[in-house]
Amino acid sequence: MVDRILRITSVGSSSWIEFRSLRLHAGVVYFDLAAQFENFTGAVGASTYYVGSPAIPFLRASKISGSFKSESWTSLEGEIKISISGDSLGHRAVNVEMRTDFTRLEGGIGVEAGRLGAIAHDLAALFANALSSTQEG
Predict the structure, then answer these.
(1) Which residues, at least 6 apart from 130, have a Cβ–Cβ distance to it below 8 Å?
(2) pTM confidence score
(3) 3-state DSSP percent of the chain in helix, strand and coil, to 5
(4) 84-137 pLDDT, tens per residue?
(5) Are strands 104-112 and 68-74 parallel, antiparallel or unpaired?
(6) Which of 24, 54, 71, 89 qualifies as a FRET site for 45, CA 20 to 30 Å off?
(7) Under 8 Å CB-to-CB from 73, ≥6 apart: which residues?
(8) φ, ψ for residue 28, nearest 5 deg
(9) How many Å apart are CA 59 and CA 16, to the nearest integer?
(10) What ranges do the domains of the chain cover?
C-alpha cells in the first residue's frame, strides 16, 4: 500500500477530493476516492483496471487553453466518474460522481487552469509510484 495521499482543494470553498489508499494487485492499482462537497462527505473504491489512471483527464485538460466542454475518466464499473470542464476565463470545474450499490454522491470543485498541470503531474506520479511498488497486496 502506498501511504501518499493527494488532496485537491477547491478555490473559494471548503470542498475537496482526495486520492488515497493506493494498493497494487496483479498489476492493477486499486484506490479510494474521498470527497467533501459543502455538507456531504463520502468515499468509494475503484481501480485502474482496463481504463488506466484517473490522471488522464487532468493531463488532457492542463494542455487546453480557453473553454472546453469536458475531459473525463470513468472507472470500469462506474463507481467513480471524474469530468473536467473549463471556461474562457481560465476557470476549471472538476466534477466527481461516486456510486455504490445504494448511494450516489455528486459534487464539484473549482480549480484555476494554472494549477491543473501540477495536479496532473502529482496525480500521475502517485499512480506511477503505486505501480512501481514492489509490495503487492
Answers:
(1) 2, 22, 23, 24, 29, 31
(2) 0.89
(3) 20, 45, 35
(4) 999 888 889 999 999 998 889 999 999 988 899 999 999 999 988 887 764 555
(5) unpaired
(6) 71
(7) 51, 52, 53, 54, 56, 57, 80, 81, 82
(8) -115, 135
(9) 19
(10) 6-131
